[in-house]
C-alpha cells in the first residue's frame, strides 16, 4: 500500500517536471529542426548531382573505343558529349601531367597538383577550384590506350572536365539557400520569394562553417542556428555538410556546406504549462494521500487487529488449562472492519465460544455488503477520475493552431525536395537509356548485348533492359525477366507505367533506336528499361519526413517509403484530397500544397507536390505525398498533449497495478481465509488449514489451524467420555485441553 502511494507521488512529480519544460515563447524547436532537415535534404541533392556527374564522365571514358592510333584531339572530341554545353575540358598525360588537348572554356589547372591527382589510381574524386569571380568543379576520368609498341605498358590519359557547381534551388517562400566552402565563403546562392536582409544573415555562414569543421570532415553532420531578430521575426538557419553518409564518397574532400535560412515569426505570447502541471500534480498527490489513509484505516489496521485476535485465540486454545489460557479465551473477539475481516472476526468469536464450551458449531449468516475487493476497485476508480481527464481532455492540441505555420511550410518544402530527388533519378534513368539507344545502331547483336549489359551495370535503378519490335516481341534482353511488356509499342521516348494492376508496378523508360546514322528510327525497334521499384522506394525515406508515397494521376500508390500494396489508395482520405489539390488547371502541372489533418492516430502534418513541371516525367501526372505525425515533431502544443497523456496513462497504470497486486496478494487470500474460518466455525474439523502466505494472513491461517486441532481434540475427548462413563463437566474438559 505504501508503494502505491509512493509511485503515485512519483507520477505527480513527473507531471510537474515534464510539463514545466514545454514553452511556446520564441522560436519552437520544431522550426529549427525543420530548417536543419531542409539543409540536409538539399545537401543530399547536391551530393547526388556531383556523384552522378562524376559517374557519367567515368562511364563515358571507359566506353571510349581507344586504339593505339588514337590522338588526343580526336579522343577529346569524342569525349566532349560527357560535358554539357561549352564547359571546359582538357586531356592530360597521366604520367607527366603535360597538356595534350583542350576544348571549350579554359580549364583552371593552375591551382591543381596534376601529378598528385594522376597518381591516384581508380576513381579520382572531384576538386573544387575557386577564384575571385568563379567557383568550379573539376571532374576526372582515366582513358586507357593500348601501347603503340608491343611489350610496352598501356598509355594513360587524364580527362578533366570543368563545370560549375550543381544548380542550387531554394524551396519555400522567403528561404535563402547557399553552398559554402570550408572557410564559410558563399559559392552559390538561391533565393525563393523575398529573402531576409543580408545584414541579418551575415554571421550565419561563418557560424555554420565553424560548426561543420567541429563535427569533422567526411561526415554528413548537420545542425541548426538562431540568427538575428528582424522586428517580430527571427532568422532561423540549418546547415549540413555535403559528404557521403555511408562512407568515402565523391564529395568528402570538397568541404562543402549547405546553409538554409529564412525569417519566421517569433512567438511573443508565451504559453506556460507550469501552472496546470502544478495543479494536476497537487490533485494527484492529494488523492494518493487520501487513498493511503483510506487503505490504512479501513484495511491495514483492522487486519492487524484480526491478526492479534487470532493469535490470542490460538494461545488460549493451546494453553493446556493454564490461567493465562483462560484469560486469553475470556476476552471476546471484537469485529473490526467490514467484508472479509468482519467475517473472520465473527468466525473467531464463534470459535472462542466453542473452545469455552459455551456454544456449539453454528452456521454464520451469508456475507452481505461490499468486501475489500470493492475497496480496491474504488481506489483504482478514484485515481482513474484523475487519469482519464488527463488522457482525453486536458491540453488537447487544436488542429487549427497546434502546428506552427513554419513547420507546415517546412513539410511542404521537404516534400518538394523529395519530389525533385525522384524526378532527377527518373530523368537520369531516361538519359542513360537514350544514350544506350543511340549506341545500338549499326552494331552486331553481341555488341548490342554488351552495351545493354554495361548500361545495366552503370544504372542500378534498372532491373532489365530489352529491345521490342513493333509487335511487342522481345528481340534482345539483359537482366531480369520483365514484369510485363507493352503490346502497343509507343512512339518517341519517355517514362510510362506498363501495367495498371497487379502486385508490383511496372515502370519503364523507353527510347527509339535510330536506323544507322540517320535520324529515323529503326524499323520497329524500341529500347525499354524497366525501373526497379525497390530503387524508387529507396529514394523516399528521409529523417522526420514521415511516410512518403509516389502516386499516379489517379492517386494510386506506385512506390512508398513504408509497406504498401501496388495501386492501392492513399491510407487517409485527407491525403487523397491533398494530392488532388495540387492539380492545377487543365494543361498545367499544379503546385505543392500542405495541410494539418486530424486522424485516428492524432494530428498529422501532410504535404503533396507534383512530380515534374518539365522533362520526360512531366506528362505522367504523378505526385509525391508525405505525412508526418505531429507527435514526432517537437511542437509545444503536441508535446504538452503527449506528456499530459503520458502522466494520465502512468497514473492509471500505477493504480491498476497497485490495486491489482493488492487484490492478488492480500484480498484474494483473505477471502479464502474467511471461507475457511466460517467452515471451521460451522463444525468442519477435517479440513487442514495450510498457510500459503508468509505475512499477517499466513499467521491468521496458522492460528486457525491450531484452533482446529484444539477443537478436534476436544471433540474426541467428549466422544470418549460419552463412551466410558458419565460425562464430566465441559468446563473441566476444556481446561484439560
Strands, helices and their partners?
Blueprint: H1 2-20, H2 29-63, H3 72-78, E1 89-93, E2 99-103, H4 114-119, E3 127-130, E4 135-145, E5 155-164, E6 176-180, E7 186-191, H5 204-215, E8 222-230, E9 233-241, E10 257-265, H6 274-317, H7 323-330, H8 339-356, H9 372-392, H10 405-439, H11 445-458, E11 462-468, E12 474-479, E13 494-497, E14 507-514, E15 521-531, H12 533-538, E16 547-551, E17 557-560, H13 573-581, E18 593-599, E19 602-610, E20 623-629, H14 636-681, H15 696-724, H16 730-736
Antiparallel strand pairs: 1-2, 1-5, 3-4, 4-5, 6-7, 6-10, 8-9, 9-10, 11-12, 11-15, 13-14, 14-15, 16-17, 16-20, 18-19, 19-20
Helix pairs in contact: 1-6, 1-14, 2-10, 6-7, 6-8, 6-9, 6-15, 8-14, 9-14, 10-11, 14-15
Overall mean confidence score, pLDDT:
86
**Cα shape:** elongated
Note the beta-strand portion.
Answer: 15-25%
What ranges have pLDDT less than 50 throughout 5 or more consecutive residues? 730-737
Number of domains: 3
Structural class: alpha+beta
Helix content: 40-55%
- In whole angstroms, the N-to-C terminal distance is 40 Å
Q: What is the tally of helical segments?
A: 16
> Order of strands in the sheet with the most strands?
2-1-5-4-3
Q: Main β-sheet, in a few words?
A: 5 strands, antiparallel
What does the radius of gyration come to?
42 Å
State the total count of DSSP E strands. 20
